[in-house]
Design goal:
This protein has 339 residues and is of the alpha+beta class. It contains ten helices and eleven strands. It has two domains: 204 residues, no CATH class; 119 residues, Immunoglobulin-like, CATH 2.60.40.1930. Strand 3 and strand 4 form a beta hairpin. Helix 2 packs across helix 7, helix 3 packs antiparallel against helix 4 and helix 6 runs antiparallel to helix 7.
Length: 339
């Protein structure tokens, strides 16, 4: 009977082998992209550095936002984290493809996918790509953990006659559970996968009820703070929270309006009239002026100090600052003068 059960599990592992190989390649290829194909992804001085993508996750990450923010304001720790993450992805990929320490690798794949889901599950300008990648990795990782790698694996070659309980949960083969315990384990893992899928879909995209949204489809820049002096100097803190991660929001005009919506000042934030020293960046992604506009990458946050282009005298009263994107989108905030 035991031999029959072991044979059934070996066959199940063979049926799951395509999932194991593809999931393994997903993580191994990520390692190879950063180390072999495009090593600039691990170069902090490169525009292709992974840290920029990591900063993109910040605005709407679930649960791990404090960790992400801590890392992006500490670039040395961010570099160590990203290198470590890359190495772990490579080891997980090799483990799954070769079937070495398969269950340990499968749990690694599950946890890595869960982390990707929490951090970047809200991204995907045309589809919910990152969410789909995350939930698929979680579910397939759990399946491979249940089946192990079976006959076609290094586990079968090196650990076929293993006896230690801990080793059984790290490699492949039968758990030595009875039918009832095996069913409970399968039901539990299924429940976990479905719960994570449905919860994250609602939390990140409103996919179960309410109005479906995609936060990476259309740019949004929040004006977190605005201060106006009597002589027309304007300080605004900008934070890009929504929109595609592949390009920035381009602010071409900043207007100061009075209580009657009449223009008091007009700023054109570009490299000809806005110095980089007048921009205080808080995160890894930087707000910078170019020839035509102020460029705000996704996840960037900065205080921008604007100098009036003409002599003005600001009277006490209500004012509003309006920033205009090249796409025609506008965002505004009410402000008051400071002495």
């Amino acid at each position: 009977m035991t031999e029959k059960k072991n044979g059934l599990l070996d066959y199940a592992a063979l049926f799951v082998m395509p999932i194991r190989f593809v999931l393994g390649w997903q993580f191994l290829s990520a390692f190879l992209r950063r180390v072999v194909n495009d090593p600039e992804k691990l170069d902090p001085n490169s525009a292709a550095f992974m840290g920029h993508a990591f900063n993109h996750f910040l605005p709407h990450a679930l649960f791990i936002k404090p960790m992400i923010e801590y890392l992006i304001v500490n670039p040395q720790l961010l570099y160590i984290f990203l290198v470590s993450f890359t190495i772990i992805e490579g080891l997980v990929g090799i483990g799954l493809i070769t079937g070495l320490l398969t269950r340990l690798s499968a749990i690694g794949a599950t946890l890595l996918s869960f982390g990707i889901l929490l951090g970047s599950g809200w991204l995907g300008s045309t589809c919910v790509d990152e969410w789909q990648i995350g939930i698929t990795g979680v579910a397939t990782g759990l399946v491979v953990f249940l089946t192990g790698a079976g006959l076609f694996s290094l586990d079968n070659l090196f650990f076929k006659n293993r006896n230690g309980k801990a080793l059984k949960f790290l490699t492949s083969g039968k758990f030595n559970l009875d039918d009832s315990q095996s069913k409970k384990l399968a039901y539990t893992f299924s429940f976990i996968a479905v719960l994570i899928t449905l919860f994250s879909y609602q939390a990140l995209h409103n996919g179960l009820y309410g109005k479906l949204f995609n936060l990476s489809k259309q740019p949004k820049v929040e004006i977190l703070k605005a201060e106006l002096t009597q002589n027309g100097y304007l300080d605004i803190t900008l934070y890009r929270t929504n929109g595609p991660d592949t390009y920035g929001s381009f602010i071409t005009q900043i207007l100061l309006l009075d209580a009657s919506n009449n223009p008091v000042e007009t700023f054109y934030p570009n490299e000809s009239n806005l110095k980089k020293t007048n921009i205080k960046n808080y995160f890894f992604n930087k707000v910078v002026p170019n020839k035509f506009s102020l460029v705000i990458p996704l996840g960037a946050k900065a205080k921008v100090s604007l100098t009036p282009v003409k002599n003005v005298s600001i009277k006490n009263g209500k004012y509003k600052v309006v920033i205009m994107d090249v796409s025609g989108l506008k965002w505004s905030k009410n402000i008051s003068t400071t002495q």
